[in-house]
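Colleagues,

For the teaching module next term, I've prepared a clean inverse folding example: a structure given as tokens, and then the sequence designed for it. I'd like students to try predicting residues themselves before seeing the answer, so please don't circulate the second half yet.
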């Protein structure tokens, strides 16, 4: 799996911006990606040193459309902690 395929998109939310103050960045990742693959992808794509990686599977919410129940898509989320002094410049100013 290529590094570009592992990281799908960054999460831009209020909680994710509060985690950035702790030097943690949140990404939606490929469901089959492992923690080591995610660490390697972030370190090689953004040229930073990754200290820790936490992953979680997020189940889709139950929604209703025209009275019929359904689900939104489930996804895998990763919280990546960088070494002290390291930042990802793409997130600055967001």
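(Answer key — instructors only)
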């Amino acid at each position: 799996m290529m590094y570009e395929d592992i990281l799908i998109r960054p999460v831009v939310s209020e909680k994710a911006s509060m985690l950035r103050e702790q030097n943690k960045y949140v990404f939606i990742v490929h469901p089959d990606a492992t923690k080591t693959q995610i660490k390697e992808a972030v370190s090689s794509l953004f040229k930073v040193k990754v200290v820790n990686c936490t992953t979680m599977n997020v189940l889709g919410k139950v929604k209703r459309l025209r009275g019929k129940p359904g689900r939104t898509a489930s996804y895998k989320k990763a919280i990546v902690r960088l070494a002290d002094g390291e930042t990802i410049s793409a997130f600055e100013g967001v």
